[in-house]
Amino acid sequence: MKTAPPHSLEALPPQWLVRFCQLTAAFAMVAGLFSGCNLTQNSDCVSHSSNYEASLIDEGALAAEAPPEGVPYPMAIVLSQDAVNKLFAAVANADVPPLTIGDTIGGVPLSVTLDAQLPLIQVGGVNGCLTCLFSSMGFGLSVNVAGVAVGGTGAAAFQFPLFVQDNGLESTSFFAQLAQSEVVGIDLQIDGIPSAYMAPVNGLVTMAANAIITNEYGDTKLFDLNAWEVGDGDVKLVGRGPHIDAAQRTIVIGMQSNLVRPENGSIQWNPALPEGADIGLQIAPELIESLIRRMMHEDHIPRSYNESGQADSMGSEQVTLNTMRAGENELLTTSFRLWRTSGGFCGFADLQANLGLSISDKKLRFAAQNVKITDSAGVGNLLQYASNWGGSEFLSNVIDYSEITVNYNEFVIPGGKKADMSAESFRLDLGSEGLSLFLNIEAIVDAVTN
């Protein structure tokens, strides 16, 4: 009888021979799969991985310094005359002591006493001063001629420059330079003064009014403008201008940022405000887009997600932001890309969501709607999970940071105060004005410090 060689398959027991054949078939199947699609190195995965990495190179880039003075701006703040007076009243001394100034006219003692009220500011100067504000300070008046006192009232009209102090990338300070005031008119309401003394009285009143304005108020800091308190604190905003529009009684402050905007998205600022609005904000959508990119770069908005759209450091899908643009019907159209760059099924899917604005609890709020796929390539089963992204953690984060941007509230007032703002209305313009938001100053409150 012929026997099998000791190392041949025939020498194996029957049950071992069956197991060997099963393992051989399994390995053959795996080898076939790898030869058709290398799960980590096939050409599609390599290509999409390279494209994904390239898209991250300049994401959220920051300039070393903000652009210099000059338009265009990605953001502008429009202050109404009422807003300027609210801010001034929050920092100026309303309890100025009366001031008496005297002289002798033809041997007759003459004195005037002014009990000044808080000046009211009017936007727009006179005598061709393009950066000046105009003001009127009312006062109670007592005139003493040779020991005889006569009471009355009056007002001093004066103008002063609005000065902007650039604090580098950290902040911008705005000062009412009352120390450089120029009195341009005196109006007196008083009877019983001999006409011969009216001219000297006018002169003394002018001197007293000027002394109160320059000495008691001086260069009054109105506020600092700071950047949003977001992320690692590297995003900066600086004020430029100011641009004073006497016709609209508004002050426009152009805002520049160190956020790099690849398409240089900007607004053509409009100095007009709707009736009742204290402050207007005009924001180019690309500024919001650049801020979101920066938050992704700093990992404050996660990069990796699972198939349900929830953040997962081991998730198979990575996200990049494409664009944020003004769309129809006052919607902010947001486009983002889902990437899958490993695992055998590689590619991307572009999704678009419309962010609609509303006002809730006196703040501007975004809500995502109409999420849809606009483009794709080699995505395998990515598409079947795209519907999950309407309520994804990514969109939730985008909305959170977009709301921080549009609810700008960084008017820092001397004395540890801030202006508490409330949203009045909004408008999303398809043209050059971008996103226009209108706010009211509810109150001046203590700033919250960490």
Give the quaternary arrangement of the chains: single chain
Number of helices: 6
Q: How does the major sheet shape up? A: 15 strands, antiparallel
How many beta-strand segments? 20
Q: What structural category do the secondary elements indicate?
A: alpha+beta
Query: What percent of residues are in strands?
Result: 35-45%
First CA to last CA: what distance?
94 Å
Q: Determine the fraction of residues in helical runs and give it as a percent range.
A: 10-25%
Label the overall shape. elongated
Question: Order of SSEs, N→C?
Answer: HHEHEEEEEEEHEEEEHEEEEEHEEE
Q: What Rg, in angstroms, do the CA atoms define?
A: 35 Å
**How many distinct domains?**
2
Overall pLDDT metric: 84
Secondary structure elements and their pairing?
Blueprint: H1 14-36, H2 43-55, E1 75-80, H3 81-91, E2 99-105, E3 108-116, E4 120-123, E5 132-145, E6 148-166, E7 171-177, E8 182-190, H4 198-217, E9 219-226, E10 237-245, E11 250-257, E12 279-283, H5 285-297, E13 304-305, E14 317-326, E15 331-340, E16 347-360, E17 363-377, H6 393-406, E18 411-413, E19 417-428, E20 435-446
Antiparallel strand pairs: 1-11, 1-12, 2-3, 3-5, 4-5, 5-6, 6-7, 6-8, 7-9, 9-18, 10-11, 12-20, 13-14, 14-15, 15-16, 16-17, 18-19, 19-20
Search tags:
450 residues, alpha+beta, Bactericidal permeability-increasing protein, domain 1, 15-stranded antiparallel sheet, disordered N terminus
What does this structure look like?
This protein is of the alpha+beta class and 450 residues long. It is built from six helices and 20 strands. The strands form two sheets. It has a 15-stranded antiparallel β-sheet that branches. A hairpin with a 4-residue loop joins strand 14 (317-326) and strand 15 (331-340). Helix 5 (285-297) packs across helix 6 (393-406). The longest helix is centred in the N-terminal third of the chain and has 23 residues, at 14-36. Mean pLDDT is 84; it is low at 1-41.
